[in-house]
Design a protein that fits this description.
Helix content is 41%, strand content 9%. The chain is built from 10 helices and 10 strands. The strands form 3 sheets. Strands 1-5-6-4-2-3 form a 6-stranded mixed sheet, covered by helices on one side. Strands 7-8 form a two-stranded antiparallel sheet. It is globular and about 55 Å long.
Length: 348
């Protein structure tokens, strides 16, 4: 590993929370400011999650543990459901447990990858983190979910792709370990969107054509008048255009690449470009996106050829090489080239 990945990755980008913090509505601004403050604290804190069992090893079954933080910020909180335990009364706990399982299933059953580290890592989650906390995050060791404020954001366990997205940061951490700034950081975010979307599609049995390709659909609350999700892989820049949330800033092609010093160089913004390339590839190949398109991305992440500071063009060339290695120079490789050309990234 390159030791570049941060221990802290959130699903809601800081630029969204920063805008909300300036809202004229005191309830909205207070929730956003509190979330930003907690995020800053967590970003500098060392993960204090429970240690993995000593007998950890590859298994065809997940080992899940869900904790209840009790609306406090101390982690992990009280253990409320373990692997094989019956469902509890708390729907948030059950959704977190199911989402951890859905993510494990995609990696294990489709790619033969045991948990997110490939070596049977236990999957840990804490729910009900803080009060009106408008985010979910991966801290290097575990998943953490806020309940949302109920107006702009609902419970962060509602979209299974949010769970898959955050756990996929752990997958990246243990494989290509892409540095979390600039283009490598945007690739880090994009890989999480790709596998988060694949977790959802696999769980629902959807083909590439049937999928909505949205990240976080069902997360936005009643105070959002014009928004469907946090991001759209199909049409980056169209997930929301709202008086409160603002306008989705994601570009779909390099022609609109955003140069900024905020958000680690726009990692949540420019991820729209490789996101769109994956969407175009999956739709071009047809069928289930986790099969050929997802396999190519998985091969790149686990192949050991990427540098930690990989730029879009390096990643694109790696996907072409992976497609050729697995499928030859037929339709898969041609579709990969076509997808990157469409978003303006050189792949040859």
């Amino acid at each position: 590993m390159n030791q570049h990945s941060p221990a802290f990755c959130t699903i809601v980008p800081p630029h969204v929370l920063e805008r909300l913090a300036e809202s004229d509505d005191p309830a909205i601004s207070e929730a956003a400011r509190r979330t930003l403050l907690v995020d800053a604290t967590q970003r500098t804190a060392r993960a204090q999650g429970p240690a993995a069992p000593a007998d950890a090893g590859p298994s065809d079954r997940p080992r899940r543990t869900v904790h209840d933080a009790g609306n406090r910020t101390e982690l992990p909180g009280d253990r409320v459901r373990g692997e094989g335990d019956a469902a509890v009364r708390d729907a948030t706990v059950n959704r977190a447990y199911a989402g951890l399982g859905a993510t494990f299933d995609l990696f294990a059953k489709v790619y033969g990858h045991h948990s997110i580290d490939g070596a049977g890592m236990p999957l840990l989650a804490s729910v009900h983190f803080d009060e009106k906390y408008d985010n979910a995050f991966w801290n290097g060791e575990q998943m953490v979910f806020g309940d949302g404020d109920g107006e702009l954001f609902l419970d962060f366990t509602l979209p299974v792709d949010v769970i898959g997205h955050e756990l996929a940061h752990g997958f990246t951490q243990h494989t290509a370990d892409l540095a979390y700034y600039g283009q490598s950081g945007a690739l880090n975010e994009s890989v999480s969107d790709v596998f988060g979307s694949l977790v959802k599609q696999y769980a629902l049995g959807q083909t590439a054509a049937q999928a909505d390709w949205l990240i976080g659909a069902g997360l936005l609350g009643p105070a959002v008048d014009n928004g469907v999700a946090l991001r759209s892989m199909k049409e980056p820049g169209t997930a929301y255009d709202d008086d409160v949330l603002g306008k989705d800033p994601q570009p779909a092609t390099m022609a609109d690449y955003v140069r900024t010093s905020s958000d680690n160089g726009g990692v949540h913004i420019n991820s729209g470009i490789p996101n769109h390339a994956f969407y175009l590839l999956a739709v071009e190949l047809g069928g289930n996106a986790w099969e050929r398109a997802g396999q190519i991305w998985y091969d790149v992440m686990t192949g050991g050829t990427l540098t930690g500071e990989a730029r879009f063009s390096e990643f694109a060339r790696a996907t072409v090489a992976a497609a050729k290695a697995r499928y030859g120079d037929g339709e898969e490789m041609q579709a990969v080239l076509k997808a990157w050309t469409a978003v303006g990234v050189p792949a040859e």
